[in-house]
Amino acid sequence: MVVQAQYFHDPMDEPGYLQNNKFLPDINNAITINQSYKDNLTKLNSLLLVMFASDTVVVPRESSWFWWFKEGSNTELVPYNQTELYLKDTIGLQTLEKEGKLKFDSAPGDHMKFTLAWFLEHVITPYLINYI
């Protein structure tokens, strides 16, 4: 499965984000824990997170790799493995990494602007060819 998430998370208004964003806090188990979300994610053979090097849509672009802003900042970033999401393993990122299933890649260019050759080399061949 290849998906992209669409959301807005204001790093300077965490209460507003938790109250008004109906999708992301739920799927990230930020308010209540839905164990099935974590169970389903950790069943994946691999979770490939792709960051676009010149992304002008996703801000910060590193959030494609679950990096996020330090609390109270909209400039300083916290690496994925130092976030509460990872440390509490609420969606299974830590579990996936321990099992060698969490993968990171970057693509040149702007948001979702990849060539077929790049997609074949970085996604289809290493992760999907055995399932086609």
Your description of this structure?
This protein has 132 residues and is of the alpha+beta class. The protein has helices at residues 14-20, 24-27, 35-42, 84-87, 93-98, 116-128, and strands at 47-52, 68-69, 77-78, 102-107. It is globular, with a radius of gyration of 15 Å. It starts with 13 loop residues before the first helix and ends with a helix.
What's the quick description here?
The protein has 132 residues and is of the alpha+beta class. It has helices spanning 14-20, 24-27, 35-42, 84-87, 93-98, 116-128; strands at 47-52, 68-69, 77-78, 102-107.
Order of helices and strands: HHHEEEHHEH
Q: Helical stretch count?
A: 6
Q: Using DSSP, what is the number of strands?
A: 4
Share in helix: 25-40%
- Characterize the biggest β-sheet: 2 strands, parallel
Mean pLDDT: 91
Low-confidence stretches: none
| Computed structural class | alpha+beta
Strand order within the widest sheet? 1-4
Distance between the termini: 11 Å
**How much of the residues is beta strand, in percent?**
5-15%
Overall morphology: globular
- Radius of gyration of CA atoms, rounded to a whole number: 15 Å
